[in-house]
UniProtKB/TrEMBL annotation:
<dbReference type="GO" id="GO:0004045">
    <property type="term" value="F:peptidyl-tRNA hydrolase activity"/>
</dbReference>
<protein>
    <recommendedName>
        <fullName>Prokaryotic-type class I peptide chain release factors domain-containing protein</fullName>
    </recommendedName>
</protein>
<dbReference type="GO" id="GO:0016150">
    <property type="term" value="F:translation release factor activity, codon nonspecific"/>
</dbReference>
<dbReference type="GO" id="GO:0070126">
    <property type="term" value="P:mitochondrial translational termination"/>
</dbReference>
<dbReference type="InterPro" id="IPR052104">
    <property type="entry name" value="Mito_Release_Factor_mL62"/>
</dbReference>
<dbReference type="GO" id="GO:0005762">
    <property type="term" value="C:mitochondrial large ribosomal subunit"/>
</dbReference>
Amino acid sequence: MANFDKGQHMHGWVSGFPWFQDSHWSPGCLIFPSLSDHYSFLSSAVNSKAEVRFHLATADWIAEPVRQKIALKHKNKINREGELILTSESSRYQFRNLADCLQKIRDMIAEASQMPKEPSKEDAQLQRIRIENMNRERLRQKRINSAIKTSRRVDMD
């Protein structure tokens, strides 16, 4: 698992991605076609750090709205060339760190794929009532503060 060449198909198991339909892969298989991996080496340490990067804008294996959400939410992980860079050094083993990077990609895609829930009529009604009550209480506090300040005022007549 640690010896992926650039351009070689890497895949992981992800469930619930309706935009991926391919007959020769099992359901839930997500192909990462354009990932490049990099392993760092330090002379005084074990070379177990893994780095996975891919160009987000041209990653056609991710749906366009999902790519946009990932770009907005994880803009600090995207370099000037538009590559999404993920690193992991949580384990002593390089293949586990590479698997952790791929899991991070799966988690990002799953999180960005979530559609916001539409509030029910009851929830919308409760939210509107809460906002009205908060505004009413805010205005009541303003009136109280105003009355306190006017009572402190001294007439110079």
